[in-house]
Amino acid sequence: MRYKLLALDIDGTLTNSQKRITPKTLEALEQLQEKGVKVILASGRPLPGLEKFADELRLKEHGGYLLCFNGGRIIDYKTGKAVCDHFLPQERLPALADAAKEYGVALMSYEGREVITEMPEDEYICYEAKINGLKVRKIENFKEYVTFPVNKCLMMADGEYLAKVEEKMKQRFPDLMFYRSEPFFLEIMPQGIDKATSLQQLLDLLGYQREDLACCGDGFNDLTMIQFAGLGVAMENAQEPVKQAADFITHSNDMDGIAHMISVCFQ
Predict the structure, then answer these.
(1) Other C-beta atoms within 10 Å of 69: how many?
(2) Which residues partner with 154 through β-bridges?
(3) What are the tens digits of pLDDT across the range 182-198?
(4) What pLDDT sits at residue 75?
(5) What's the mean pLDDT in 165-175?
(6) What is the 3-state secondary structure (H, E, C) of the chain?
(7) pTM score, two decimals?
(8) Measured between alpha carbons, how far is 36 from 146 in angstroms, rounded to an integer?
(9) What is the pLDDT of residues 57-82, one digit of tens each?
(10) 25-40 per-position pLDDT tens digit
């Protein structure tokens, strides 16, 4: 089989609009793993938000991997151990908190199985916590509280306004990286860390080449891995730049696009 590894985004790619893996897609991925293909879940989600999907796909039994926080942390799901961790520069966190207040957007990060924020009632923060099965914990002062390493922060606001904030943040923090995984989510990552660079680290660790890798995604934060992979696959529901960068466009996430891609590309 030409491709030895398959990296999948979660939301809008692996799961349908109800945030579920359909039976047809689940069966196709089980058969693929039984043939020896390693499956990698590559998402902006934290580890708790990936575990239920990893368990459904039986990644522990098949020896799959998780790229959490857009590659900020890589987990060998069979052992449960992190094989790679990247953190935001500790000295930049206070400035991020100041910028969030200045622009009037919500700011959050993660601690264990909790979302931590000064704005626990924010609708987008509640949404992020819900889809990942996390509790929301209010902290009084982000700058004073977050003195421990974090892989990622999130700014949240209405999509049209957040697009303007994104441009300002890129100019203000050239030493960090910014992605929009959803119109209302602005992900803040360490410099040089995205899905593509983390997948390269994993390939190096496992002894594979990029030509051995197929990647599927739909969002802006999937663009680098789509461009990087030996086979870059965009969902029919993907953002237009992702489609333009892809080698193959499969069906939408509500039409078993992953199962269709496997039937066409993994024969």
Answers:
(1) 27
(2) 108, 187
(3) 889 999 999 999 999 99
(4) 97
(5) 97
(6) CCCCEEEECHHHHHCCCCCCCCHHHHHHHHHHHHCCCEEEEECCCCCHHHHHHHHHCCHHHHCCEEEEHHHCEEEECCCCEEEEECCCCHHHHHHHHHHHHHHCCEEEEEECCEEEECCCCCHHHHHHHHHHCCEEEECCCHHHHCCCCCCCEEEECCHHHHHHHHHHHHHHCCCEEEEEEECCEEEEEECCCCHHHHHHHHHHHHCCCHHHEEEEECCHHHHHHHHHCCEEEECCCCCHHHHHHCCEECCCHHHCHHHHHHHHHCC
(7) 0.91
(8) 42
(9) 999 999 999 999 999 999 999 999 99
(10) 999 999 999 999 999 9
Token pair listed for 88: 């935001």
Residue 1 above 80 pLDDT?
A: no
Residue type, 172: R
Q: Do 181 and 220 contact (CB within 8 A), yes or no? A: yes
Instruction: State both tokens at 18.
Output: 């109800």
